[in-house]
Amino acid sequence: MTLHHLLFPFLILTSSAASSLSATVKDQTLNTQDANLFNPKLPPRTLSSSKKFEGSSEIVDIRYHMGPVLSSSPINIYLIWYGKWSVSQKFIIKDFINSISPSAAPPSPSVSDWWKTVSLYTDQTGANVSRAVVIAKEHSDSAYSHGSHLTRLSVQQVISTAVGAAPFPVDHRNGIYLILTSHDVTVQDFCRAVCGFHYFTFPSMVGHTLPYAWIGNSGKQCPEVCAYPFAVPGYMGGGGPGALVPPNGDVGLDGMISVIAHELAELTTNPLVNAWYAGEDPTAPTEIGDLCEGLYGTGGGGGYIGQVMRDRRGKTYNMNGNKGRKFMVQWVWSPVLKACAGPNALD
């Protein structure tokens, strides 16, 4: 989701390489020893019409527009914790990011398997999006240096402050600047139109052009919008299916994980908004996460999120990560299959 993208009703608000992906999707063995598969039907949100595609589709014209992708290894993520964050909250998010390129492979289906689809995207030289993603540095802005309400422009000022104070370098080639705002920080259009966005910084604001993404913790502000399907709209009352139990026990944080995944997938394949997207308007492109919003497993669509797993404690997830973590992450569009793809696919 770029700076201008709106929310959609089923999600929060997304050669040798071809052979590798085919094997991943086709031969994937789900580790369901301690889990049951199920495909819950949940009420859609009411914000706008869905753009997701459950299966392969020839009408999706996602094209390459000759811009760069993040192909240099490793991709360095510079984390800015804006506001008040607990140690446990930070661990959940960092464990997810570190699950993209784990030191030891977790059981399948895994977050690193999910990233294989993202890494199929190439630039004009044929270089793929890097498979290596690391947290390079962290910066805590617990003093709310730009207040407890941020605009789209002041989000860039948060980056400028971090770069200017020198906790972060200027990393043009490999860097992603990831701003995460705590539950008590309001952001322009948050909950109303976006749960996260990515873009690039303006030289006039930061002094450099740097790819960045922002995601907010919706736990206290709008979990039914940005932490779906772990929270459902209040209008449901006592009727209809309830929200799913989050895998890490934190509705806001578990909801953030899928939005972070969505933005990282799009930021690496379209960092300057001139690489991979569908549509003719680069100011409002449809990107690889947008095409699969609300889809978490095989059989999704029509209000169903797809086949996911539920463990013995009732917690719902579709991917394994580092340190025994489990996550619920939306699928992304595959340029090879021309369909939404995820490591927990059953077909």
From TrEMBL:
InterPro entries in the record: EXORDIUM-like
GO terms for cellular component: apoplast
Signal as UniProt keyword: yes
Any matching Pfam family: Phi_1
UniProt keywords, alphabetically: Apoplast, Secreted, Signal
Location relative to the cell: Secreted, Extracellular space, Apoplast
Transmembrane segments: none
Signal peptide residues on this chain, from the entry's feature table: 1-18
Family: Belongs to the EXORDIUM family.
Protein name: Protein EXORDIUM-like 5
Organism field: Hibiscus syriacus (Rose of Sharon)
